[in-house]
Amino acid sequence: MLTSEFAPVRGGIGTYAREIAVAASDLGADVTVAAPDYGEDNADEDHLLPFEIRRFAGGLHSMRDLPAKIRLARRLIGSGRHDVVHAADWPFFIPLALSRRLTTARTLMSVHGTEINETQTALKRLAIRCTGVFGPRSEVAANSHYTADLFRERFSVEGERIHAIPLGVSDFWFGERQDRAATRAAYAIAPDRIVIVTVARITRRKGHPTVLAALSMLPEALRERITWLVIGPDGEADYVEELKQLAASGGCDVRFLGQMADEAIRDIYGAADLFCLTGVHDPSGRVEGFGLVYLEAGAAGLPSVATTIGGVPDAVIQGRSGLLVPPAVADIARAIATLAERVELRSTLAAGAIAHARALSWRRCAAETYGLPQPATSAAANMPDRVVAAMARHGDVPVFQMQPASPP
Length: 408
What we know:
The protein is of the alpha/beta class. About 40% of the residues lie in helices and about 15% in strands. It contains 19 helices and twelve strands. Strands 9-8-7-10-11-12 form a six-stranded parallel sheet, with helices on both faces. The relative contact order is 0.11.
């Protein structure tokens, strides 16, 4: 696997590369990952990984790094026998294409959404065409059905070489959490409050203002019972400041908690009642290719209120793991009110969210991506809806230990 992002840098591509490599190793594959060193000695952390990692000098990608990446790809691909060579993100597409003749391996490229739009400039289209990036031997793995469809619209590639393979969720998010009451007490949240949580960078396309507007539309008696916890790093400074001013004057209990460690987020999930992230269309061309955070919240037993943006419908199944609505304030308000007021529905969707998260494991993702033997089917995948819902209503939602096959 060739990737331009990896730990210790946090980000979607780095998470994807690490998790799919770990899962493939768990399924018996011999994995080697080439990743940047970010100018640091990463040996202590790398030795803990269940696969070989070869660090190359560099950091986050810049076009001036392309010649070095081409040389690196040629050296690594030509130095041994491989069954699959995988470019985990677009900066390695051209290097892989130019090295293809050095190997008989399957050549696989992952697309995540936004980069498909970003490669539509005349110069980039010319480079892709001249280097044969998506030539006859290239296979494309898209992180959602939406991303696969977007790729088909932008590039002339045979449909059988494009595979929609939704991402997975780490076992970490199913792990033990601090007691619900203790977490609420730590944040001075009363036991009877309805807690909504959002985890996302505070940037325009994530749609935080639509949630604020939706909350303002709720009946006063309901709105006064809600606490909204907003977790994530700041995006555009002017936008963040405007959002916080709106929240302060909106008459709602809104708390900006900033960026937090995953362990703390997992505890908050356990103390919350529902997850809410309502992305909006972004005219800049950035898209929500999937929506991994919905699965992470679902693994902790939180149903979602989400918008039908990009690949989100693969991460949130309407009526099973949450409520999917158009990106309109009135629709979002109705969905929040429905989950806030209907405890039984919330419990049913919570059970469905856990089952859906289990179905979309990283082992399943790795098996589909690399053609490895599929992991065993989860008990959650086979359990009747009425049984799962009944268990959720009684607070007995199971954390299943077996791993599932393909997602629904």
